[in-house]
Design goal:
mainly alpha, 3 helices
Length: about 80
């Protein structure tokens, strides 16, 4: 179980703006950041309850290639260890 989180509201707003630029129809289901944070918290709680191996990745840092590559390596390492 891999959960990607964003805990920084400004970064969340930037990601939403980026999503809207690429997918204007996303506006129809858009919610306020605090609603996404509530949903995220529920996912975190369920992840903690789960018996599955899990990894939570915080993507609150503004995206750049080096950061993303580091996170992808972490995810692949987790997947390979769980096999």
């Amino acid at each position: 179980l891999i959960l990607i989180t964003v805990k920084n509201e400004q970064v969340y707003k930037e990601r939403i703006a980026d999503r809207l630029n690429g997918s204007p129809h996303y506006k129809r289901i858009l919610q306020k950041p605090n609603e996404y944070f509530k949903q995220q918290q529920k996912y975190i709680e369920e992840t903690q309850k789960s018996k599955l191996d899990s990894l939570v990745i915080d993507m609150s840092t503004p995206l750049n290639k080096r950061f993303v590559n580091k996170q992808v390596k972490t995810i692949f390492k987790f997947i390979n260890e769980v096999k």
